[in-house]
Every structure is written in structure tokens, then in C-alpha cells.
Amino acid sequence: MPSPSSNGDTATRSPARADTETAGATAIAVRGLAKDFAGTRALDGIDLDIRPGELLALLGPSGSGKTTLLRAIAGLEPLSAGTVHFGGEDATALRVQDRKVGFVFQHYALFRHMSVADNIAYGLAVRPRALRPPRAEIRRRVEDLLELVQLPGIGQRFPGQLSGGQRQRVALARALAVEPRVLLLDEPFGALDAQVRKDLRRWLRDIHHRTGHTTVFVTHDQEEAVELADRVAILNRGRLEQVGSPDDVLDRPANAFVAGFVGQAVRLDVTVADGVVRAGGIGLGPAPAGATSGPAALFLRSGDVSVVAAGAGTTTGTVTANTRSAASRRLEIRLADDLPQIEAEVPLDRAVARSETVALTIRTGRLFPLVG
Amino acid sequence: MSDVSRATFRSPLQESLAVRWLLILVAVAFLALVVLLPLAAVFSEALRKGPEAALAAFDDEATWSAVTLTLTVAAITVPANLVFGVAAAWAIAKFEFPGKSLLITLIDLPFSVSPVVSGLVFVLVFGSHGLLGPLLSAWNIKIIFALPGIVLATTFVTLPFIARELIPLMQEQGTAEEEAALTLGASGLKAFLTVTLPNIRWALLYGVLLCNARAMGEFGAVAVVSGHIRGLTNTMPLHVEILYNEYNFVGAFAVAALLALLALVTLGAKSLLEWRYGDALAGKSRH
After folding, report:
1. C-alpha span between A232 and B72 (Å, rounded)
2. pLDDT value at position B6?
3. Which pLDDT does position A111 carry in this prediction?
4. Which of A123, A189, A300, B134 has the fewest CB atoms in 10 Å of its CB?
5. In degrees, to the nearest 5, what angle opens at C-alpha B104 toward C-alphas B102 and B107?
6. Is A213 left (phi over 0), alpha (psi -120 to 50) or beta?
7. Long-range contacts of residues A148-151, Cβ cutoff 8 Å, at least 24 apart
């Protein structure tokens, strides 16, 4: 028997707090999102605001929950807790069909029995008759999209006859055909070889500029994330570690995980005492102002280590390898036997022999105290 | 120098000529003995007293009734197993649920149980002294020794064919294409009809053909539940046996030949479709 009190359900569905919070300049607002898989927590308390028109990378090691987060935004993954808003509208209870997201799957998931044109037209062709564009209009849209993804004239081919890069473009065209509110890409370049990857990166950036879609893509490749994205969200074990511009995450990492995961840094376990950073008893240099004493992790990139005139540096090291790159020489340097080797770059005209001892100045900026 | 080495070089995967011929001969001899010879015997026995004698076997009410019954049973069984097979394969391949491995085992059960036992089970359940016997006779419903019993027994025996054909394929295909269809706005039913079904059509056709061949040819389970009422509950395989036991060899082999012919037509249709749509079939496994 339905009772009048069942009205109470609708009243509690959209809390006013969330509505005011997400109003304004957010395309996607994720609040307190959690997801459990058979007792393990894949996502834990994710809060993330994605701005209109931005290109955001979800970056993390495998198993960090980045794909689960993307699928949760799309509505492909039921949530254990939390809400998802699109442009201020609560989409948490919306079915995937009604969320109007464009999703590009990792292995593209093109319909293998349909031609490229039918694949792209699918989202328009399955609409109810009243909302479906006329056939000529659909055909024109398909041609426009093939033009946009730079594959004109392949509409009659089948997915099995395309290269990986071409399938990727068709998958993007198919997702764009329904004029999605947001574009979500799961490891868009994961299955491609290095050269195609580089080309497609540039191409995706270009398409994003031209179409202006709010775009979120998942990647495990930090180079790809910082090269392509306006902002990078770094996930680890189901939690957001940092959200920021490429400059932020590279130069101002929020914690030791981020410092270790982006920027190809070497991690040294150090101790800070009396304003000096020491590793294995060797003094590396003065500690940055305000550094707390005690054990810490120091992350060094090649730019942090400079080879200076003999006697001038803060420490010394032995060159173990000397490799040539296009514009400089890369040195591998051993500070002590039980420490990881660090890297430095020197100009081409600086001749360095292997096993030579060099004086070094080390920038100790990326220093994170170890707690516990 | 290089000519010499090329002449004597043999692919590491290739045996010598003698071994190859021996293996081919063994295979052909085995096939001839086990498949071709019996098949030829059926037709030659049927035509031993001339085509007129063979055709005379069909000038008989009971024979036509057997042909009609067999086609009726197949016409009910195959669609029923089609629906069940697609539904079961879909559930098993695309979803995780408790009891999944039990369901897979149950689907395989008819393969591992002797058909006679399968028939007997239905007698024990629906027969006049069976579990539901009193209830059925009170309602005046006849299942054993009637069409429903034959259909039930045949459905049971042919249950795995379509599901077994579909499960590995659907598992390999995964759920990504269906998910893509949903993100593009398709309803669940529409995604099933426009994406899932076209992707499995070839395996489905193959399963249907196998299921149909077995449904028409099933003997053991049907023999138990049919009651051998001539002109009423005799299917073609049962009719062949009766004619044979009555020393009507020409008649028995004529009906058997028709049964074999139906199977050959089925296989021919499958080969024709494979030849006609071979590219699409190859495309299925290419990506």
C-alpha cells in the first residue's frame, strides 16, 4: 500500500548543500566518492572538481583506481558512496544512457560487425524516432566527424581493417557524435606504439582546442599526463594525492608519493640534522629553510645536481656512466656504495671521464619528512 | 652452394614424404571406415530393391506420422533451446553471480548423462506412477507416452548445444561493446539486439544446426518416454527401429536414408553459409 509518507524519499534525494557547492564554474563535481570491490576499497573519499573546457589527466600506477573513477563518472560503475554532479545537476542517480558522456574505451570497443560510418552514427541512430535526426543529417554528421578526426573516406571500412591509431580516432568520432557534455578517455594511447602515441597526443590536444569539450583521460604515463593535460590529478591506492597544473605536480609535489611518481626522480633516504641533509653519513648540502630534523626522503632529478669546479661543491661523487643525448651529456654518479646512483647533466664541451671524482652542488628542495 | 642447401632444406615443422603419406592414409582409412562406409550402406540398402521399393516405404500412414512428429519436436525444441542457450550464455559470459559454476555444470549435465537415463527421469517425474503422476491424471494431462514427454526429453538432451557454442565466444568478446552502446544512449534491449546478437550470429547458427540435427536424431531418451505407439508417438529414429525389427529392411533403410539426408542438408547449408560469408566469419576472430 503506498502511503503519503513516501514523499519523504524525494525530499532527501538532492541535498541543497551539494547544489550550492557545485554551482558556478565546474563541469564535473565529484564529492566523497567511494567504491568497494568485494570488500576492498578501490576508491576512498574522492573530491574532485573538473572545470569547463579543461583537459584533465587522471594519473596513477596500476591499481590506483583511476579507471574506476573514470567509469564511476560515466555511470558505468555503481558507487558505494558519494555524488557526481554535471554542471550543477546531480547525476548520481542518472543511468549511463542519460548522462550524455562520450566514453572512449581502452581497446576502443568499436562494433566489429558495423562499418566505420555505422559505428559513428550509432549514438544518433538508436535515439527514439522523435529525437533521431533525419538520415541525410546523420550521414552529413558522420562525414564531418570523419573529417575532424582526419580519416575522410573510410566510412565503408570495418574496424578489423583499420590500424590501432585509426580505430582510436574512429572511437573518438563515435563518442563525439552524440555531442556529449564531457569526454572521458580510458588509457587512450595505451595500446599504441611509441611513434603513433606521440602523433595522437598532439592530435588529441589539437581536437580538444578546437571542440572545447571538457575532457578527462586516464593514463599511467606521467610524461603523457604532464605533456597533454591542463591539470593532473594523481591517484594512489584509491585516494587523490594531488590535483594541480603540470608545473605544480612537477615543481611543488604535495607529498613523497607524488615527488617519486612524477618527474623521474631518484629517491634517497636521508636524515636532516643541524641544518644539513645527510645520506648514509655523507653531507649532501644545507637543508632548505624550515626543514624539520629527522629522517626524510629526498627526491633528486638530474636538474637538481650540478657538476662544479673541483673543491667548490657541497659534496663529491664518482662518475660511473657517461651517456650522450642530443643536447647534453648525462652522467650517472655514485655518492657512496650503498646509495642509489643519482643523475646529472653537463654541457657537451665538459669532458668527463668514467670513474672521475667530481664536485657536486645538490639542490635539496624536494624533501619530505618521514613520519612514523 | 645456396641452391644445394635450399634443395635439401625442409621446414622444421614438416615430416618426410613417407611419414606424411602414411599419416594421410591412416586418417582417410579411419574416416572411410567409421563415417563414409556406414553412410553409403544406408543409401545402398535403401535402394537395394530399386527406388520404387524405397519410395513405397513412404506410402504409409505410420511413416508420415513419424516424419511429422520428428519435425514437430524439432520445431518446438530448437527455438526453446535457442532462447535458453542465448539467455544462459549471456548471463554466464557477461555477469558475475553466485552459483555461476553450478549453472555451467548443470548445462553440461545432459552431455554426461546417458540419454536412456534422461528419458527415465521424466518417466519417474511425470509417469502415472511418478512424482506428479496422480496430479497430472487428475487434471487429465498426458505427458509421458505423448508429445509433451517427447519434447521434454529431446529438449533435455539437446540443451547444451547452443549454450556451449556461445559461452566461450561471448566470454572472449567481453562487455566493452555493450558498455559502449549504453554510453551512446542505447537501452539495454537495443544494445542486445544491435550489438550482442550480431556479434554471436555465426556461433548461434552453428549451435542451432547442431541442436536441430540432434533433436531430429535423438533415440535413447525418446524411446523411453514415447511408448512406441505407431502412428502417434513414433519419431523417425524409433520408426526405423520398428521397421527393422519387423524385417522390413528396405523400409527401415529408406526412412534412415531420409533422416541422413536431412542431416546432410543441414551440414550443406552450414558449409554454404561458411563459404558465402567466410570473410565475416574470419573477421570475427581477427580482432
Report:
1. 65
2. 55
3. 95
4. B134
5. 110
6. beta
7. A148/A173, A148/A176, A148/A207, A148/A210, A148/A211, A149/A173, A149/A207, A150/A203, A151/A116
The Cα of A121 is separated from the nearest Cα of chain B by a number of Å equal to 10
Q: What is the ipTM of this complex?
A: 0.81
- Angle, alpha carbons A235-A238-A244 (nearest 5°): 25
- pLDDT of B282 > 80? The answer is no
Task: Give dist(CA B20, CA B14) in Å, integer.
Answer: 8
Contact A277, A298 (CB under 8 A): yes
Chain B residues with CB under 8 Å of A109 CB are 176-177, 179-180
Under DSSP, the state recorded for A292 is P
State how far the Cα of A101 lies from the Cα of A77, in Å rounded to an integer: 14
The residue-averaged pLDDT of A281-307 equals 87
Asked if B184 lies within 8 A of A126 by C-beta distance, the reply is: yes
pTM: 0.79
Of A64-78, A299-313, A330-344, B199-213, highest mean pLDDT: A64-78
**Which three cell numbers, joined as nine digits, stand for A96?**
549511463
A117 has a pLDDT exceeding 80 = yes
Distance CA(B57)–CA(B48), nearest Å, equals: 13
Tally of CB atoms within 10 A around B28:
11
CA distances from B44 to A292, B39, B57, B237, B253 (A): 100, 9, 15, 18, 9
Q: Is B284 on the interface with A (CB under 8 A)?
A: yes
> Model confidence over B28-71: pLDDT tens digits?
999 999 999 999 998 998 888 888 888 888 888 888 899 999 99
**Overall average pLDDT of the B206-215 stretch:** 90
pLDDT of residue A28: 93
Chain A residue with the nearest C-alpha to that of B285: A160
Q: How far apart are CA B235 and CA B232, in angstroms?
A: 9
Residue B67 near chain A (CB below 8 Å): no
Cβ atoms of B269 and B209 within 8 Å: the answer is: yes
Do strands A276-279 and A101-104 pair parallel, antiparallel, or not at all (unpaired)?
unpaired
Q: What is the pLDDT of residues B190-206, one digit of tens each?
A: 999 999 999 998 889 88
**CB nearest to A159's CB, from B194, B280, B287:** B287
**Per-residue pLDDT reduced to its tens digit, A157-206:** 999 999 988 999 999 999 999 999 999 999 988 878 888 888 888 888 88
Q: A119 is written with which cell numbers?
A: 559505428
Residue A263 banded pLDDT, cuts 50, 70, 90: confident
3-state secondary structure of A336: coil
Is residue A359 a contact partner of residue A312, using CB atoms and an 8 Å limit? Answer: yes
Residue B36: burial class (beta carbons within 10 Å; 0-12, 13-18, 19+): exposed
The DSSP H or E segment spanning B250 is helix B249-276
Q: Which chain A residues are closer than 8 Å to B184 by Cβ?
A: 122-123, 126, 174-175, 177-178
